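Q: What does the assembly look like in three dimensions?
Context provided by user:
Components: three
Sequences:
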Amino acid sequence: MTLRTETFILNAGPQHPSTHGVFRMRFTLDGEVIQDVEPVFGYLHRGIEKLAEGLTYSQDIVFTDRLDYLASMTNNQAYVLAVEKLAGIQVPERAEYLRVIMAELMRISSHLMAVGFLLNDIGAFLTPLLYMYREREKILDLYDMVCGQRLTYNYMRIGGVSQDIPEEFVPALKRFIDSLPRFIKEYEQLLETNEIVLIRTKNVGTLSKESAINYSAAGPVLRASGIKWDIRKADPYSVYSRFKFEIPTGIKGDVYDRYRVRIEEMHQSIAIIKQAMEQIPQGEIQTKVSRVLKPAKGEAYGRIEGPKGELGFYLVSDGGTNPYRLHVRPPSLINLTALRELLIGVKIADAMAIFGSIDICVGEVDR
Amino acid sequence: MTLALQIAQLVAGLEKSVPGSVTESGGNIIVVKPESLFKVLSDLKTNKEWDFNYLSFMTAVDYQTYFEVVYDLISLEHNQEVLVKTRLTDREKPVLPSVISLWKGADFQEREIFDLFGINFTGHPNMKRIFLWDGFQGYPLRKDFKQS
Amino acid sequence: MELNNLPGPESNSYLDMDREEGQGIKLTKSLYQAPVADPDAWLTEEPGHNIILTTADAIIGWARSSSVWPVNAGLACCAFEMISAASSRFDISRFGMEIFRPSPRQADLMIVNGTLTWKMAPQVKRIYDQMAEPKWVIAMGSCAISGGLFRNSYAVVPGVNNIIPVDIYVPGCPPRPEALLYGIQMLHKKIKRQSLATGRKKT
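A: Here is the predicted structure of the complete assembly.
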């Protein structure tokens, strides 16, 4: 006798413990196997691109903090890079080194959160997350020392940074960087020999090389599929050409490779911070820029390698005090284009592991 | 990118394959006519000399008399970048062919341009609003959008 | 509630579900244009006006305030300061609140943090309606209090108190975890003073 089955629609709604924010997916399920998935966006669409046209260039830096709120320093860096390209402003050396140190610390913090939440979604509920939070709180203390904020820093300015580091920053940073490799090794030991983590992440959600390029994936998702592409080496900005570091790549492009690429990138960030701390010169921290900046008519695109992928700002100026058009290239939204292909034919329990490994931040997806 | 693009060579190559398409060029920007946009983009992707296989981003800008749609293409192999722009003068029903058959990464970005500007992309399998809700009147990022 | 009386989608296709959602949002936008009054009658009423219930009030108030369980309703950046408050450094477990329930049926408190957009507003109202009495709401961060940085946007609700009544407002962008814990202590004081005789007005 034949079995008659019917598909049904399951809503992983905007309020959900594993969707990393207000994100909705409509699954069409046949039993436990996913036939179709439709992601629904827009629950955090605040209209930043329209609001930015109403404020001046330096006032727009506060909007960039709230885009990818887990990595505010790198957002600031991308925006001021775009404005400096547009207006032709040179940045002093000490400011560049300070920007690099803050950006690499931000990368470590963002990857810690990404790995912690991925393991949270797989089922190791809250323990890896609280361990990663231990290190993240130390990074946030360092940021608190420099600019007084824990989450939305607003630290970088057009032409430099806003404040110099206090004296107690350098010994605290040195203590933190010296102790961090031991902690990363501790997490690796706890997790990588665990059979359940290996079964749930290996060969799950494989994204091939050609697909990754065609879907415009960027960041760890692209590198885990085997493509060695990092903006810090391909199109060097700031002072990254003076540091020696490697680009970790994966082999297959499954969830395990993306997790490993993030752990290795943390080690590379530690190496960059150590070199930056040795090479940092004395000097000014911000060039003199007029209070109300009026760049010449034109356009510019400034891109950086953020923790989630290539983050870029496309600015068009018409000679006035406000930008005529500000467009953000959102790495999280573009990485999600591959989601539908990755999830079809997979059981629903694997869906959250795959989704967590892409590592999105909804503030950036919806802007 | 680290290698500077030989823009004159690129324009000459495009003139041979798609004659009369490029209207302006300079730096690493070329401006093409909307009718020949799809042929130019597929030529840039498939031609082994240029091999622009990665679409970095696409967006639109509203200059009061025309819309300008910008595509940023990168060649991962040769480490080069080109910006391809096109201008649409019709403000009532602007229409462009979709490039989703060339780069699947254009999926959500075209829906976003439709949602915020009103530019329709023919050939897209799922052309509907992405950020704003069904029933929202108007296209917010146009310069003549009035909030109710 | 009018939102619950909408007819469902005509079919299971995505377009019809989108249309139904759009109608719900249009209804929400038309109904909730002015702020709902804050439940602050407790500030001016006299304590112990009902002699018979004072000891019962004291015990029940102490019991209610010692284990308030929040529901997971984090929307944007402030959610991460709430998660920091729940982590091991700024322990929220010492107040009995470490159980963050994903389901609103088992929760007493809704901490709304982050920007509320019109698209998300019917969902927040639905979560609030599904919570059982007694229930309280904390609006955390300037986006939840008044729309914050995004107040002039075409898609943002100017403050969560347009949709639901709010008990405690915690300002900041984002407020530090210590500020959230201070707000929670104020909420405990309020809960203890709530009397069985007066209860709460229904919205």
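Follow-up: Residues 8-366 of chain A form a domain with the Cytochrome-c3 Hydrogenase; chain B fold (CATH 1.10.645.10).
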